[in-house]
Amino acid sequence: xxxxxxxxxxxxxxxxxxxVTNLLLINLAGSRINxxxxxxxxxxxxxxxxxxxxKITALLEGAGFFCKLIPDRVCDALEESVQHMHDFWESGxxxxxxxxxAAPTNSAKRANHIFLQGGVRDVLIPGFGYGRxxxxxxxxxxxxxxxxxSETAIKIxxxxxxxxxRIIHGSVTDMPFDENLYEGIFCYGLLYLLNGEQRKKMxxxxxxxxxxxxxxxxxxxxxxxxxxxxGREVAKDTFEIGKGGQLFFYDAAAVEGEFEAYGLRSYVxxxxxxxxxxxxxxxxxxxxxxRKD
Length: 293
What we know:
With 293 residues, this protein is an alpha/beta fold. The protein folds into 2 domains: 2-76, Alpha-Beta Plaits (2-Layer Sandwich); 79-291, 3-Layer(aba) Sandwich (Rossmann fold). Helices cover 31% and strands 30% of the residues. The protein starts with a strand and ends with a strand. Mean pLDDT is 84; it is low at 73-80.
């Protein structure tokens, strides 16, 4: 099985990254190697079958660099990850249908107000689900395009919206699905269910599909939320949920680290109600607003 291995390094610039890449390619023919020098941990990412992690660490240390495997950022190749994501959500919607109710979130209401002030006419919603957040935008006269991985969720949405919205069946990890640009993008919750590499790609993909002057809004769960620390910790600030899911919890540093390069304008805490039937208290989210100037 092809896997992706992630390493923390002290590589400082592109020149050093090229040196290390060439060194690794000599010893790991056929590997796909890249660096993320914008990450605080100067991430080295290697795709290869059964990557010999000890050999990689030794090669970099022998060349005078620090290198450490980050086990919690090891993930299956993209195809398997997407299939796992599909199965997780499809099972959830099959068993629980409209699991969050019909009312839009507080984040969607706040985003609608911002979009109206900015004259937004069309909105992309990655992680559309069955569309509980779409109605508030539709009622304000905006055109809606959604992206959703679960066939069952799409069927539920189609029963409610008929042909009022366009829903693309697919995973957000495969964005973009077209060359359309949008004046507004709204994503509630989904981002924190992805791993670090997927989150970076998704934020960049959304920004790239934003029109100049457009606004994108993400609502992500905060470390202050009462469910932080529940479940087995599988990565820094990341905990298992349900059968195979995981949540990454944000603090201010994480918000700034992931959004600062994409027109970050502001972020504020916002409360999102829990389940009234099970007396779950409100969750604490960050409402993150970015703009493409």
